[in-house]
């Protein structure tokens, strides 16, 4: 299934007509001047993305902890996994030399996929379908001004790398994440046990 959805997304991306960066910038300017209301689906603000981009890995982790308001890292396995998920994702995208706009879009998509699992309780199949819709720029509703992901901001090669990353980091471990978010209660995790469990997740 993971291979099939990747092929489907690639075909959808390849079929899109990509405007030039200049036209994209002009469209954004027109939206700003015209006061058009854009759906606010940004996971991290551009100022937060900028601050993260200026840090080393340790600094990214510290700032991500602050931005996500994670206050129980010493006792909450869930918070520790969330921090690792977003920190690892941002660092991967930074090493891909994504621009600030691309970093923002990628983090939106990373959050979108996890929210579909944790908040909407989507099955793996449904989440993959939503990923396909998002990465081909299909809006959820006709009234929505933009989709969660702008395919025009990325090359086909970059989009393919993003799909590969999401498959490796989230979708291949879907059952583990489902258990993490939907088990009846989260037992406190401390010290050595927390370290061992986190190492298991970091083999993603």
TrEMBL record:
List the keywords (alphabetical): Signal
Q: Which InterPro entries match?
A: CLAMP
Q: Which Pfam families match?
A: CLAMP
Q: Does the keyword Acetylation apply?
A: no
Signal peptide from the UniProt entry = 1-15
**Manganese found in the keyword field:** no
- Name of the protein: Ciliary-associated calcium-binding coiled-coil protein 1
High-level lineage: Eukaryota, Metazoa, Chordata, Craniata, Vertebrata
């Amino acid at each position: 299934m993971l291979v099939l959805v990747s092929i489907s997304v690639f075909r959808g991306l390849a079929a899109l007509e990509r405007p030039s960066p200049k036209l994209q910038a002009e469209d954004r300017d027109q939206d700003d001047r015209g006061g058009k209301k854009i759906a606010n689906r940004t996971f991290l603000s551009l100022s937060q993305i900028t601050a993260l981009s200026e840090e080393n890995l340790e600094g990214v982790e510290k700032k991500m902890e602050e931005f996500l308001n994670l206050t129980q890292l010493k006792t909450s396995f869930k918070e520790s996994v969330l921090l690792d998920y977003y920190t690892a994702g941002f660092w991967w995208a930074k090493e891909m030399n994504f621009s600030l706009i691309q970093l923002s879009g990628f983090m939106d998509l990373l959050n979108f996929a996890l929210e579909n699992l944790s908040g909407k309780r989507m099955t793996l199949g449904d989440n993959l379908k939503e990923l396909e819709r998002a990465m081909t720029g299909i809006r959820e509703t006709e009234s929505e001004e933009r989709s969660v992901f702008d395919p025009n901001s990325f090359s086909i090669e970059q989009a393919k790398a993003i799909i590969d990353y999401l498959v490796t980091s989230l979708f291949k471990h879907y059952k583990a994440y489902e258990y993490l978010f939907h088990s009846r209660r989260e037992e406190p995790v401390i010290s050595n046990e927390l370290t061992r469990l986190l190492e298991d997740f970091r083999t993603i």
